[in-house]
Amino acid sequence: xxxxxxxxxxxxxxxxxxxxxxxxxxxxxxxxxxxxxxxxxxxxxxxxxxxxxxxxxxxxxxxxxxxxxxxxxxxxxxxxxxxxxxxxxxxxxxxxxxxxxxxxxxxxxxxxxxxxxxxxxxxxxxxxxxxxxxxxxxxxxxxxxxxxxxxxx
Length: 153
Prior knowledge:
Helices cover about 45% and strands about 20% of the residues. It is built from 5 helices and 4 strands, in the order H-H-H-H-H-E-E-E-E. The chain has a 4-stranded antiparallel β-sheet. By secondary structure, it is an alpha+beta fold. It has one domain.
């Protein structure tokens, strides 16, 4: 009987049974963070692709459907990103070296000489987690934004 009390056989199995759930939760958390980071990078890249298309010249800067199409093509057909609810295109103007803001006059009229035009694209979507976690909303909103000066003005 005394030999059984001092035996260490099976203790590794018990330690593993205690540690395994913690390790599995850490692994799932790492996978979720990786997926969230991946979709965040996709949103930023999609916004950048849309703004690069729009920043070619004043005609493409006003081509909202072309900008939206470029952003959607770069978004790799993500299921929760559509042109109707996830992509916003803004045309901005900067006067006399000031910060870019919404243009007060239409682009077709004669603007002041020192006007610099910008295109801004915002892409938003949702990220659905694999599991429901307490305190973390599901779905999680994701967005990316890019602003670029129009090249030929």
